[in-house]
Design a protein that fits this description.
This protein is mainly alpha-helical. The chain has 9 helices and 4 strands. A two-stranded antiparallel ribbon has the order 1-4. α1 runs antiparallel to α9, α5 packs antiparallel against α8 and α7 crosses α8. The chain is globular. The relative contact order is 0.15.
């Protein structure tokens, strides 16, 4: 004859409370890190798109301009872009994600390399304003400079063909997004070119490509660990 052991309600409550607390403790860092990606996208977008708006590269509708010659919707738009990069571990195909999530010759993310990639991407973005405005370079010469900077960064830090192809897809997609906004009359490039469909300047391709190379790697460094901690907490809670 066996005797059933009953767990007192108080004991059940005491064992479930730590599980809930653990889940909450790992959820908070994840949300905080995603919020940081949003905030970083908004701040960097205002800074560097502001350089474009104040160096004769592009202009926004006068009645939508809120500050620094930028439209009111620029911060949330760039913030959404930053958040999308932060969420990359959740939606990118694993092979594509892994091709961007670690440096050449390594299988794990590397924060130093990821920040180096970001510095290169921001240098490309900044020079896209300064070189045409201060040096008077034409679009082809500007594109050669920006493209060389991106490709050297990819070759030095990644070297994976799939990552390069993915950055190219993002470059085309981002350029198409901006062209659509221009076609809708939300803003315009001062000197669009033929390769940009007479809507945008074609060298913005390199800005978008650099953002993909750095952004996904940063997400692998800072967001994926929080996602893994959440999964581990859920598994422990379900034991």
């Amino acid at each position: 004859m066996t005797t059933a052991t009953m767990t007192p309600p108080a004991a059940q409550t005491s064992t479930s409370a730590p599980s809930k607390a653990l889940a909450s403790s790992v959820e908070t860092p994840l949300l905080a890190r995603l919020a940081l990606f949003f905030a970083a996208g908004a701040v960097l977008g205002v800074t560097f798109d502001g350089m474009h708006a104040n160096h004769g590269i592009l202009a926004y509708l006068p009645h939508e301009v809120a500050f620094l010659n930028l439209a009111w919707w620029v911060p949330p738009e760039f913030g959404a872009g930053g958040l999308l990069l932060g969420l990359a571990p959740l939606f990118l195909p694993r092979a594509v994600y892994r091709s961007l999530a670690s440096p050449a010759g390594e299988s794990a993310p590397n924060k130093t390399v990821a920040w180096t990639q970001l510095a290169s991407a921001l240098a490309v973005y900044g020079l896209s304003s300064l070189v045409p405005y201060h040096l008077g370079w034409a679009h082809p010469a500007t594109s050669v400079l920006l493209g060389a900077m991106f490709l050297v960064t990819w070759a030095a830090t990644n070297r994976r063909p799939l990552a390069l192809a993915t950055c190219a897809v993002v470059g085309v997609g981002g350029s198409a997004w901006e062209a659509a906004l221009c076609a809708a009359g939300k803003f315009w490039y001062v000197r669009p070119d033929a390769l940009g469909g007479h809507l945008v300047t074609h060298w913005i391709f390199w800005i978008w490509a650099g953002a993909a190379l750095a952004g996904v790697h940063l997400a692998a460094c800072y967001v994926e660990p929080a996602l893994e901690a959440r999964k581990a907490a859920e598994a422990k809670r379900n034991e």
